């Protein structure tokens, strides 16, 4: 007697939409970060009737959904039985600046969590961040900076800012401020380190109080990405970065 290695079950989970990719003339693949299963790819039909339980229109960047899904062991692409909007994202869809931030963030998140295991704390952080971006009505130019550096807390390499005094170097490789110039090339000089320290003082509650020039903000992003590359294996290029820079110049 033969037994199937596949176990089909229906599950309910929240999910955050990252991006879509083409699969065939009939189907697309949506890549989601789910609360229950971590990053998962799902097959959805490109065209369906008005009464479909999986409307393609809900799968836009950072959309938060309530899903009922199949989950079969060892299957790379899963199927969605039903998809509903968990919270409406009006400003993220209609505000061009927020839309650009969203496109950048989903690419960044996708590269960070691509091999991640299910992590409810990580999911909740991203979920709460989406809510903040949706509701913030002004002075959100620093949002993505806060998001990127705070995300590292859930990945195990948040920088240690304890003991910082003006004039120190920030050692990107070891994630600490030091009083001497490191022996490797991955560090920030004192002026850059001061800006980076201000970044570590920022939160969603106070981010509007910190002012950076376009040049400083651009440099901070490059340094955060360098920091991620030093602490995550094979961290790839962020293609939407230049578009983000154009918005804030």
Biggest sheet layout? 5 strands, mixed, barrel
Q: Which consecutive residue ranges, at least 5 long each, have pLDDT under 50? A: none
Task: Please state the overall shape, judged from the principal axes of the Cα atoms.
Answer: elongated
In angstroms, what is the radius of gyration?
20 Å
Query: Strand content of the residues, in percent?
Result: 15-25%
> What is the third-level CATH name, the topology of the largest domain?
de novo design (two linked rop proteins)
Distance between the termini: 67 Å
The domain tally reads 2
Helical stretch count?
7
Quote the average pLDDT.
90
Give me the CATH architecture of the largest domain, please. Up-down Bundle
Q: Spatial order of the strands in the main sheet?
A: 1-2-3-5-4
Approximate helicity band: 25-40%
In the CATH scheme, the class of the largest domain would be Mainly Alpha
Counting DSSP E segments of at least 2 residues, the number of strands comes to 8
- Helix-strand sequence: EEEEEHHHHEEEHHH
Give the structural class.
Answer: alpha+beta
Oligomer: single chain
């Amino acid at each position: 007697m033969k037994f199937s290695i596949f176990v089909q079950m229906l599950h309910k989970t929240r999910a955050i939409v990252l991006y879509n990719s083409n699969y065939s003339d009939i189907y697309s693949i949506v890549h989601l970060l789910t609360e229950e299963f971590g990053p998962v790819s799902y097959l959805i039909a490109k065209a369906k009737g008005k009464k479909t339980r999986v409307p393609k229109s809900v799968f836009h960047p950072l959309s938060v959904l309530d899903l009922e899904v199949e989950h079969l062991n060892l299957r790379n692409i899963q199927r969605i039985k039903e998809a509903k909007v968990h919270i409406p994202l009006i400003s993220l869809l209609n505000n061009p600046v927020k839309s650009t931030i969203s496109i950048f963030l989903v690419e960044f998140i996708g590269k960070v969590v691509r091999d991640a295991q299910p992590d409810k704390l990580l999911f909740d952080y991203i979920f709460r961040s989406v809510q903040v971006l949706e509701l913030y009505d002004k002075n959100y130019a620093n949002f993505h900076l806060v998001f990127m550096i705070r995300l590292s807390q859930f990945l195990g390499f948040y920088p240690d800012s304890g003991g910082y005094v003006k004039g120190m170097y920030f050692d990107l490789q070891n994630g600490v401020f030091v009083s001497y110039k490191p022996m490797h090339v991955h560090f920030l000089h004192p002026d850059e380190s001061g800006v980076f320290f201000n970044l570590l003082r920022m939160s969603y509650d106070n981010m509007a109080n910190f002012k950076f020039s376009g040049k400083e903000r651009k440099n901070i992003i490059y340094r955060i990405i360098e920091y991620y590359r030093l602490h995550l294996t094979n961290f790839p290029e962020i293609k939407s970065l230049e578009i983000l820079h154009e918005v804030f110049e």
